[in-house]
Automatic annotation (TrEMBL):
Residues 107-389 form the Gcp-like domain. Pfam families: TsaD (PF00814). The lineage of its organism: Bacteria, Bacillati, Bacillota, Bacilli, Bacillales. Required for the formation of a threonylcarbamoyl group on adenosine at position 37 (t(6)A37) in tRNAs that read codons beginning with adenine. Is involved in the transfer of the threonylcarbamoyl moiety of threonylcarbamoyl-AMP (TC-AMP) to the N6 group of A37, together with TsaE and TsaB. TsaD likely plays a direct catalytic role in this reaction. It comes from Insulibacter thermoxylanivorax. The gene is tsaD. This is tRNA N6-adenosine threonylcarbamoyltransferase. It catalyses: L-threonylcarbamoyladenylate + adenosine(37) in tRNA = N(6)-L-threonylcarbamoyladenosine(37) in tRNA + AMP + H(+). Gene3D superfamilies: 3.30.420.40.
Length: 420
């Protein structure tokens, strides 16, 4: 069975579309500087692995490592003098990725294996297939990352992994791999939040300055987050129905475009200057929330009505109209938030951050307002492990590590993560 992002939380075995990873370098847009949720049902084997790891952890060695790192011993000082190399693992959806990130900023390696070709024929991610592919691919990615970084395992300071949100079966593969490595290497484990990862991907290319407002636009999330300081997240607005990436993928499917549809709509939208008139969902006057299901239904209605009349509407006009409606609302609310919170930067994050229409409109609006816009390079927009290594560094700075009996958290919140 194939399902979509909004259905993840209600059905543990299925999920929505991920995104195809485009490995290109960042390109400046408009002279602006560019910075390069789902449900628990652990399978029997993973639970076994969990309990084995828990019992070994309880018996001592990794707890000792954590103790040494937090107690100000000689070992701690040694760790702090050396560059901190975090080996990060991301398997929350349909990308298997391993990265090695130094001091939270320098990407020594970031290898990503996308399953998009496999899920494309189903029109969305099939969770059972996704987790099986992660199992097959994870060790290959690990070896490749170490090779690319020219790093040996004994140079690794900590192991980070996406703990959630995500598909439970997919998360579990990364979590078990990370626990195993942390235990074997006797280094700390850092469970990391996926959305913090999307935001801190930007720091791999440009320092973030606070207070800032982050606009997170991905396959499962659409959020405006006020960050008064490093590692402090206050969600001020979120989608009330579909995530923006999910809306892109559904509209693309209605237009007969392949999965994932976001990049295809983006491409089509550039092909016309004659957008179809579509509504904008502003919601209440002061609200920072979003809603995309009405817009999606409006597109489906237009397509059905023109079909019933025997007419054809150029898909590019639909794509352009849809994209303009989405981008207008995202940009307007983001600009209002940066003003209200006195932000020094507007930071874009998530798979839909790759969207050219959104990048262009935000660049224009920020240039007018004298606001610094930070956007990730294309290859760091969609899921990758380097962003997890960057976010995990927040926890390293606090010497706040995760016990080896850590569980994957399909519905993990940012607040829960930072307060752990
Ligand atoms: N150029 C683009 N324009 C619009 N959407 C895009 C573009 N490129 C990718 N996307 C969309 O980005 C989404 C994938 O992003 P991402 O990998 O961040 O999602 P996810 O990890 O599955 O969800 P989440 O991060 O919320 O858990 C897909 O919906 C895809 O269609
Ligand atoms: Mg993501």
């Amino acid at each position: 069975m194939v399902m979509h992002k909004d259905e993840r939380a209600s059905d543990p075995l299925t999920a929505g579309a991920g995104g195809k990873r485009d490995h290109q370098q960042s390109a400046a847009v408009g002279g602006v500087s560019h910075a390069a949720e789902r449900k628990p049902t652990a399978g029997a084997s993973s639970n076994d692995a969990d309990s084995q790891l828990k019992s070994t952890a309880d018996s001592g060695s990794s707890n000792d490592a954590q103790h040494q790192l937090t107690s100000g011993s000689g070992n701690t000082r040694e760790h702090q003098k050396k560059p901190v190399r975090i080996l990060a693992i991301e398997t929350s959806c349909d990308e298997t990725s391993v990265a090695i990130v130094e001091d939270g900023r320098r990407m020594l390696a970031n290898v990503v294996s996308s399953q998009v070709d496999i899920h494309e024929k189903y029109g969305g991610v099939v969770p059972e297939i996704a987790s099986r592919k992660h199992v097959e691919t994870i060790t290959v990615m690990l070896e490749e990352a170490l090779q690319q970084a020219d790093t040996s395992l004994d140079e690794i300071s900590a192991v980070a992994v996406t703990q959630g949100p995500g598909l439970v079966g997919s998360l579990l593969v990364g979590v078990v791999a990370a626990k195993t490595l942390a235990l074997a290497l006797d280094v700390p484990l850092i469970g990391t939040h996926h959305i913090a990862g999307h935001i801190y991907a930007n720091e791999l290319v440009q320092p973030l300055e606070y207070p800032l407002v982050a606009l997170v636009v991905s396959g499962g999330h659409t959020e405006l987050i006020h960050m008064p300081a490093r590692g402090e997240f206050r969600i001020i607005g979120q989608t009330r129905d579909d995530a923006v990436g999910e809306a892109y993928d559904k509209v693309a499917r209605a237009l007969g475009l392949p999965y994932p549809g976001g990049p295809h709509i983006d491409r089509l939208a550039q092909m016309t200057d004659d957008p179809l008139e579509l509504p904008r969902a502003w919601l209440e006057q002061d609200s920072y929330d979003f809603s995309f299901s009405g817009l999606k239904s409006a597109v489906l209605n237009v397509l059905n009505q023109t079909k019933m009349r025997g007419e054809v509407i150029p898909p590019a006009r639909v794509a352009r109209g849809f994209q303009e409606s989405v981008c207008d609302v995202l940009a307007e609310k983001a600009m209002r938030a940066v003003q209200e919170f006195g932000a020094r930067q507007l930071v874009l994050a998530g798979g839909v951050a790759a969207n050219r229409g959104l990048r262009t409109v935000l660049a224009e609006r920020c240039a007018q307002a004298g606001m610094q816009l930070v956007v990730p390079p294309i290859e760091l927009c969609t899921d990758n492990a380097a962003m997890i290594g960057a976010a995990a560094y927040l926890k390293w700075e606090r010497q706040s590590f995760t016990p080896l009996d850590m569980k994957a958290k399909p519905l993990f919140t940012l607040e829960e993560w930072m307060n752990e």
